[in-house]
Structure formats: C-alpha cells, structure tokens
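To: structure subgroup
Subject: Chain for Friday's discussion

All,

I'm putting the inputs and outputs inline so they're searchable in the archive.
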Amino acid sequence: MEQGNYSVGLDIGTTKIVAIIGKENEYGKIEILGTGKSKSLGVHRGVVNNITQTISSIQQAVEQAEVNSGLKIGSVVVGIAGQHIRSLHHSDYITRPDSEEVINNEDLDRLCNQVYKLVMLPGEEIIHVLPQEYKVDGQTEIKQPKGMYGGRLEANFHVVVGQVSSIKNIGRCIKSAGLDLGNITLEPLASADAVLSQEEKEAGVALIDIGGGTTDLAIFKDGIIRHTAVIPFGGNVITEDIKEGCSIIEKQAELLKIKFGSAWPGENKDNEIVSIPGLRGREPKEITLKNLSKIIHARVVEIVEQVYVEIKNYGHEEQKKKLIAGIVLTGGGSQLKHLKQLVEYITGMDTRIGYPNEHLAGDSDEEVASPLYATAVGLLMNALESTGKQVVAEEEQIPEEEKVLVGQEAMQGQSMASDKERKSIFDKWSEKLKDFLDNAE
C-alpha cells in the first residue's frame, strides 16, 4: 500500500480509545486508511487515573489501526478534556519596530507567544492561545491583519488552560505506548472541526459533545471560537443511575440504555416491560420502559441544564451574541433517542445531531461517520493540518549556505541538479544529529 503523507488522531476517551489513520485526497477531503478501537480502562471523567491500564488500551487501539491499514503509527495528535480545563479571555499587544513594513506571520507569532508567558495558577499550563479579533493602531474588528501597515498590533485571545499533571500523564502514556506526541488539542475544538460547517460557525452555534465521562462544549460566533467548557458528566453517569435505580449490573444497564433508553418519558406505554436475566440462577428482573426513561430523563435534564448555563454565561441572550444556528449534538451520548427534542424543549434553540462526515471522502466507512468518532476525526484533521503547515515551513527554510550556493550556481549557469543532492546530504546530516541527541538522553 502506498504510504503518502498520512497522520494519526488518537482520542483517549473515558469509555473507548480510538486511533484513526488518514490522509488528504486530491479534493482536500480526508480519506480514512484505518481505525482501531479499544475499551478504555484507566480514564475517569476524561482524566487518566491509571497509567498502566491506559497504556495497554492505547496499544490495543493502535495495533488494531496498524493491522487495519498496513501502516506504522509514529506521531499522534491527542485530545485533552476533563474538569480541570478552564478558559479565559485576555488582550495583549506588541509594538512593531518598523511600521513601514507590513505585518507578517512573525509578528502574529510573537504576539501569540507573548500570551503563552502569562502567569497561571500553580500547577496550570496554557494549552491553546486562540486569537479572536485583532486591532491595528486602534482600528478594531480586523480578522486577518497580515499584510497591513501598523505600529501597534493588539488582539483579544481565548486562552485554554489545563492542569500540568494531567497533560504530563497523557504525554507519559503516549511515550510508554511507543508513540511520539505530535500535539495536544482540546477535545471540543477537535469535535467542532469535524462536525460543524463554516456557515454554522459564522451564524453562531454551540457544539455539545456528550462523551462517556465528560460533556464538552464549544461555542462559535462570526467564525471564531468564543467559549469552551468541559462538564464532568456524560453517558456513564446515566448508566450508573440505571444500575442503581434498577439494581442490575453495569453491563446490563449499558445495554438497556442503548437498546431501549429514551430521554422522553411520555413516549413509553406503561405496559412495556423488559425482562433481565438474574445473576447466577436468581429470578429475572422486570423493568418497565417508562421507569427506565424516567431515570434517564432526570439525569439528561441535569446535564443539558448545566450546558445551558454555560451557553448563557457566554451571553447567548444578548442580541449581538445570539447563536442563530442553535445547537449541534455529537459524541456517543447524542445517539440517545429523543434527546434532540428534549434539548430543544429545555433551551428553545434549534438542534441537530452532528455527524463527522463534513470533511470525509465520499467512500468512507459508515462506522467512522458516526457521532461516536467525531473527536477522533477532528484530531486527525488537526494532525493533517499541522503536517501541512510543517511541510510549508520546511519549504520556506532553506539553509543560508545553500542560498549562497544556489546564487553562485545560477551565476555560473550550471544545472540545479546538484542542489537536490546537497539538500539530501543536509537532511542526512540533520537526521544523524537527531539520532545522536536522542541516544544521548
């Protein structure tokens, strides 16, 4: 199988770990080359709490994806969630040394890097710095200042902060599983990349990703991320409630939820009953579907209301900040029957279920286009994007000596073939240096 420029997204969830290998096809869509999935042990509410178990779960998913695709996995982009994530707003500015030159990428990077130096609470570190709008010499609401003239460059930033220990633990798991950590991305941002269209982001939309251990929220307006939050409840608490409420084991509760669960109690008749086999020859239990959906309803309402509080915190009720495209539900929890109607009822906002097929090539496996895989597909997109950026950056960086040599060769009118040779020699040399440094550790 031809290798091509493929990347890998790894979603370390509370209930499952998914590895997806993919590459971009000639139409800019994503072609999935292989997937692997394993039961996640050792992750609680989005945070790793048992390193050994998590490592073996990651290895399982990765091996499956490798076998599935015939490719070797090296570097991965991983998602991070959990209740330790918080976001804040910050404005910063730089004064440019030469206002006669136009603003370029270096200026924007310098401004972003300055925000990374912000002093955080002990034990916290910045995961993302996302510029919202820029100001150039007092002129406001500039989306892309590149190429403009100006002395003072200002921006408002959405800064996402997480716990150092949680980030390090994820890094540790990846390294011990024999992989390289390419990048860490906030999970709601990844899911948003996978399921939202540009129009929705412009109009204003809230993405709610209901996972096993956490419910992630990302709010967009005018094409820019405005608010992110991670709520430490997900599908697992619903299963837990069914387990307690019906006195059955977890496996049965999970099956009940998936097969017969509904978020709207009015839908079930009183006489619909499910019989559950008892443990070790005990009597079977009979559970009415009405009771089942009452248990689910109570918990789902609680989760949705918490998310709605976050949406209100962002300022959805102000006219200018109104989310016209409403809500998009994704993640495994979004497959609960009648959830869409319940969310519309509680929030009064238009709601749809989000499938990550927005950017996938047409012949992709149906399984991958399920809401379960939204985060993993988003992480894969992020991985492809960063490799794309690296390739561009590498093309821009020709070493100085080489530029001089190219100039001399051009003067002598010689062929440029030797240039290619020299580049490969340079590559070999840098690889040797890298190997030496790695071994030195």
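Points worth raising on Friday:
Residues 400-423 have pLDDT under 50 and may be disordered.
Residues 64 and 170 are 20 Å apart (CA to CA).

D.
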